[in-house]
Amino acid sequence: MSALEPVIGLEVHCQLETHSKLFSACPLEIGAAPNTRTDPYTWGLPGTLPVLNREAVRKAIALALATHCEIHGESQFARKHYFYPDLPKGYQITQSDRPYATGGWVDVPGAAPLRVRLQRIHLEEDAGKNLHAGRSSGVDYNRAGAPLLEIVSEPDLRSAEQAAAYLRELRGLVRALGLSAANMEEGTLRCDANVSLRPRGHDVLGVRCEIKNVNSFRFLARAIEAEIARQQDLLQQGRTIERCTLGFDGERDRLFVMRSKEDAADYRYLPDPDLPPLSISAAMIEAVRATLPELPADRRARWAAAGVAADDAQLLSAERELADYFDATLAAATARRAELPARRVAAWIVTELLGKLAAEGLPLSRCPITPAALAELVVLVDDGTVSGRTGKDLFARLWQGEASAADIAAREGLQQVSDTSAIDRTIAEVLAAHPQQLAALRAGKDALRGFFVGQIMKATRGQANPKLVAERLAAAIAAGEPT
To answer: What pLDDT is attached to residue 219?
Structure first.
């Protein structure tokens, strides 16, 4: 174990899905042609004034409630000055020393559950996007002014794996609330990681370096691991770690220094003179609270109480669409058979459905099997109407577009034989047809039991209930003579 301990905090930027930008009526559209979603305010033209987007404030309150934050009745917007090509006004409107929400936490499930404390969540406007093609560069201002939530964690993370798990849980929460697509590839979810090292067991923080704008979970983990290794090498060489801002080149798997880290004074923060303080009333908070859906952690707790395995529950709760599909399937299945274990429905979705979607590269939205159709199939297998093997064949038929597993099974005679008298007759015939093997089995050659099961299943064309076959065969052998 290394004598040095990583200390990691994340600053996550989430672009909210709203009809218009944070401070103007200019429409938002991901993927629109460059510079086709701009207006005079976006360009920072003289005489334009900001008007706050109420929808963005409601969504900001929803995330603060879901993460147990303290929501302040009054907060302040400020101007953060810096001069980059992607910032037309020469400043960004954000919340600096008076954010709308502070404190709170996110619980990260797993083998070792983790609580990540939040320092703050604040509202701000996004900048534009620099575009580079060969030796040419340009700027797309469509994104400039888009509403962002910045979620700043305390330095509670101790590994790259923990950081990626926390970001996944936060993304799942944002999606469950319907705040954003939170797609890292599109840039609607972006992450900066602050990394430092300190002697293990000490409380004093080391010098932190910030990795900017990581755009995938895999790159986040790799970038943090690379930065931990870089700082360890510097300290082992007796060199000083300089505070700086880093970029990560995922193709070359390397970090590069972008600039020395600015202090807050470098940004010349000042209260925005064109915006009054943001007032959030108790009535507005309660109105938003009343609209909150069931959150991923609450769903996992409900499913765990119903017997769903923790790993399955974590996977099923990761995406709202998948969680909704599971709940709809479970409801349809238990309506058919009240005592059906929830873990069996979960197993079919996790193993068969997600496996098939992954194999064909399809999103759940294009799944050809409805929750009701899958529920019918799960019940058929669970109550012994069809065998597990037949159930998988029926699943393939449903995937190809057939509507009902029960109809297929009835039409083609695929139901299992569970009539004990019929099974006993078949067992008697098979045992009588193989007297030498039966004698050897009764003499102690137990491996022959599988031979007889195979012969019985063959005689019933695979339709005998395997559990009943095993039970009735054992009884016939123990009796000392065929039944």
So the answer is: 92
Q: How far apart are CA 37 and CA 25, in angstroms?
A: 10
Contacts of residue 57, defined as CB under 8 A and 6 or more positions apart, other chains included, come to 123, 278, 280
Query: Is 139 in the same domain as 264?
Result: yes
- Which value, in Å, is the radius of gyration of the alpha carbons in the chain? 30
The pLDDT tens digits of the residues spanning 110-123 come to 888 899 999 999 99
Taking CA atoms, 7 is separated from 45, 234, 258, 355, in Å, by: 43, 16, 21, 36
Residue 232: how many other CB atoms lie within 10 Å: 15
Final residue belonging to a domain, choices 391, 412, 433: 412
pLDDT of 207 reads 92
Residue 22 C-beta-side C-alpha neighbours within 13 Å: 24
User: What are the tokens at 352?
Assistant: 């068969």
DSSP tag of 159: S
- Name the pTM for this structure: 0.86
At residue 473, what is the residue type?
L
Tell whether 61 and 91 lie within a shared domain.
yes
